[in-house]
Amino acid sequence: MEWPSQSPDLNLIEHLWEELERCVTGIRAQNADQKFSQLQTAWAQIPQSLVTNLIQSMPRRCQAVIDSRGFPTKY
Question: Which InterPro entries match (predicted)?
C-alpha cells in the first residue's frame, strides 16, 4: 500500500502522545527533570489494553484511509 503522506490516521504513536498529554495536563513541574519523571510515570500507566486496541485497529484504519482515498478519516 502506498503510504499517504502526513497521515496521522495510520500513526498510532500520535494517539499515545494524546493520551500522555491528557495524563499530565494540569500537573506542574519545577524543572525539566521533574517533568521528565512525570512523563515517564504517566507513560508507564497507559494501559496495555489501549496499545493493544490501537494495534488491532490498524486493518480498519488502513481500510478507512483507502476508502477515503487518503483524505481524513474518523480516526
Answer: RNaseH_sf (IPR036397)
Q: What distance in Å separates the CA atoms of residue 46 and residue 18, rounded to the nearest whole number?
A: 11
Q: How many residues does the chain have?
A: 75
| Amino acid at site 30 | Q
What does the pLDDT look like over 33-70, one tens digit per residue?
A: 999 999 999 999 999 999 999 999 989 888 887 888 76
C-alpha–C-alpha distance, residues 72 and 65, integer Å: 7
* Single-letter amino acid, residue 57: S
Match 499517504 to its residue by C-alpha cell: 4
At residue 2, the 3 state secondary structure works out as coil
pTM of structure:
0.71
Q: Which DSSP category does 30 fall into?
A: S
DSSP code for 54 = H
